Amino acid sequence: MRRLPGDRTRAMTNNVDAVFTRNLALNERETHERRLVLGSRPVALGLIITNWCNLRCIMCPSQRHTATQTLPPEALAGVPELFPCLARLDWQGGEFFQLRYVQELFARARAYPRIRHYFTTNALLLDDSWLELFPGAQVSLQVSVDSPRREVYEHIRRGADYEQLLARLRRIQEVEVRHGRRIERDLHVVVLRSNHRHLDEFPAFARRYGFRAVTFSPVYFCDSEENIYKDASGELKSELERMRLELERLGRREGVDILWGASPDDGPRPGEPGPGAAGPACLLPWKSLWIDAIKEGAILPDCWCDHPVGTAAEGLLAAWNGERMQDYRRRLAAGDAALCGKCAARRLYPAL
């Protein structure tokens, strides 16, 4: 009997789901057993594609403003091989929406509906060619804004145009309406001297432009006066605690989730020596790989990791079970977090 096109599509979808489900179950078992060599493939992948950015934010690390480092197409050639097994794919920069080969890679990934895509961006370069692709995939936009006030936004995000930002946010809403599908998005705010007294304006801004949540984080890698955390006083701690409570109240009113991690005592900062307390609770070497353009194409278990397990030239799958990744797994399985002393994450991998 002749098979109809719809039958072939369903068969392909069922096969994709079967591959994903088998790999996920195997990965969970191998993670539980703390295997050193895995038969499963990564369930999460992160791409730090470039350090190039269209802005020069006042709190941004100097590495953003030095020689541009960008993953070339050949460094990403092995990525599609992992698509069938991925539950999560992080796309980070810099800003990379101007790179057509990255757009082509995302277009290929849309054929795998189990992948949840997280894009970190200032949204200013998001054009229609990208936006029209988003409704066909599980996409979560992580949009950095830092102030809902024009003058403060443009002061913090040097080179940005506030009206251009609002136009992009409205365009996202228009694409949602036209396709009848929501594009999930969250706001990300770095707490600075310039903005910390008007953070309570964010919940209404978030609701107006369709954001699900607002995440507040302390400033990292910043030695200027904008860093209010360097010598945080008791008065500042009290002020931020009052702001947190007010944000939670306003978030409930506006229907916006408030994710607050900006108190001075919320834990060690990236790069600060810590107790190395990741221990066997950190499952990243059993779950994920990252390629980092800023580290010259190094492959790591996570973007916070200091010790590469391979390079893009060597290939993702070679790194996945290579000697250096096995060393991560061996140490963590034994409760040895010596490789993780500067990690500010120290967390279980988020639910996939």
Structure description:
It is built from 10 helices and 12 strands. The protein is of the alpha/beta class and 352 residues long. It folds into 2 domains: 16-121 and 284-351, Aldolase class I (TIM Barrel, Alpha-Beta Barrel), CATH 3.20.20.70; 140-263, Transcription Regulator spoIIAA (2-Layer Sandwich). The two termini are 40 Å apart. 36% of the residues are buried. Residues 273-280 and 346-352 have low confidence and may be disordered.
Topology, element by element:
Layout: H1 5-32, E1 44-48, E2 56-57, E3 88-92, H2 100-109, E4 116-121, H3 128-131, E5 138-144, H4 150-156, E6 157-158, H5 162-179, E7 184-191, H6 202-208, E8 213-218, H7 234-254, E9 257-260, H8 284-287, E10 288-292, E11 298-300, E12 310-311, H9 316-320, H10 323-333
Parallel strand pairs: 1-3, 1-10, 3-4, 4-5, 5-7, 7-8, 8-9
Antiparallel strand pairs: 2-6, 10-11, 11-12
Helix pairs in contact: 6-7
CATH homologous superfamily name of the largest domain? Aldolase class I
Low-confidence stretches: 273-280, 346-352
The CATH C-level class name of the largest domain: Alpha Beta
Query: What structural category characterises the helix and strand content?
Result: alpha/beta
Radius of gyration: 21 Å
Strand content: 15-25%
Span of the ends, CA to CA:
40 Å
| Count of DSSP strands | 12
Q: Number of folding domains?
A: 2
> Which fold name corresponds to the CATH topology of the largest domain?
TIM Barrel
